[in-house]
């Protein structure tokens, strides 16, 4: 039986959406491992739009679901339509979209809230005892999803780690090629582009995260 995995995206592009390399590596690894995948995103406006060439903010509005559809080649659903019974695991790639569109971590830090549809979907996996994988900045949402005491990593960025600790997480420093697992909560995290200097470095940890999440889905 192939495992069915939900992947939640946050737009398209590292500065205002999902990190494209992380998303594609995740989808590639899941496919290589024979998993069935469905992508989801919230049907909400992006916080803002960033010109990825100049780095400047652009005077336009975009929709998170519509932009995420670029990565998913159109095969994506509103996260409101995520039915927990249909899936064995959840994975969330990083990118600033996680901190800007799936939550307001970018603007409110430790006092952040998670977009309600995304939070409901994530909590459903926790309540069902199904594994979750969070990469890059996505572990910033871990305490909101799992509660205080959750073990996770964003790598070794001390300011971000301090904010996670302030939120109630137990932060473990981690190399780009490694994963941190909270076995009690079935949460797997890896730094990805919080540390990666190349796409191959990012893949080294992401592949381990995907493999481990799939292993946990068997238990």
From TrEMBL:
What keywords are assigned to this protein? Lyase
Known Gene3D superfamilies for this protein?
Answer: 3.40.50.880
Top-rank taxon of the source lineage equals: Bacteria
Give an example GO molecular function.
Answer: lyase activity
- Catalytic activity field: glyoxal + H2O = glycolate + H(+)
Fetch the InterPro entries from UniProt.
Class_I_gatase-like, ElbB
Task: Tell me which family the UniProt entry assigns to this protein.
Answer: Belongs to the peptidase C56 family.
As for what it does, the entry says: Displays glyoxalase activity, catalyzing the conversion of glyoxal to glycolate.
Q: NCBIfam families from the xrefs?
A: PRK11780.1
Its recorded name reads Glyoxalase
Give the species.
Ectopseudomonas composti
